[in-house]
């Protein structure tokens, strides 16, 4: 191989290694944790109860509502849990979310966290 070919292969290899390193740093090391609080609703809960919980508790600082997926029919979605993304929330914000959820005892069965702990 000529010197020019060796240099080009070396530069391409260096760029590939550098791109993997940059991707690893920003995608894994500096990314916020993927943490979701899943709130299970009572069997008698309706879509209006789910929306009320989303409005009341989803506006807290550090908390975002995870969008529903699947069938948008209110009769179908009413059976599924409400999810809150708490990856960027600190301990006090998580406590405030828990207190907000506990105010809805007539429609909430329970909750648990999923993801990074």
Description:
With 117 residues, the protein is of the alpha+beta class. It has 4 helices and 4 strands; from the N terminus they run H-E-H-E-H-E-H-E. It has a 4-stranded antiparallel beta sheet. The radius of gyration is 22 Å and the shape is elongated.
Give me some keywords for this one.
single chain, alpha+beta, 4-stranded antiparallel sheet, 4 helices, 18% strand, elongated
- Beta percentage is 15-25%
Largest sheet, strands/sense/barrel:
4 strands, antiparallel
* Helix/strand order, N-terminal first: HEHEHEHE
Overall residue-averaged pLDDT value: 88
Uncertain segments: none
Give the arrangement of secondary structure elements.
Elements lengths: L2 H27 L5 E7 L5 H12 L5 E2 L8 H4 L4 E4 L5 H12 L5 E8 L2
Antiparallel strand pairs: 1-3, 1-4, 2-3
Produce a short descriptive summary:
The protein has 117 residues and is of the alpha+beta class. It has helices at residues 3-29, 47-58, 74-77, 91-102; strands at 35-41, 64-65, 82-85, 108-115.
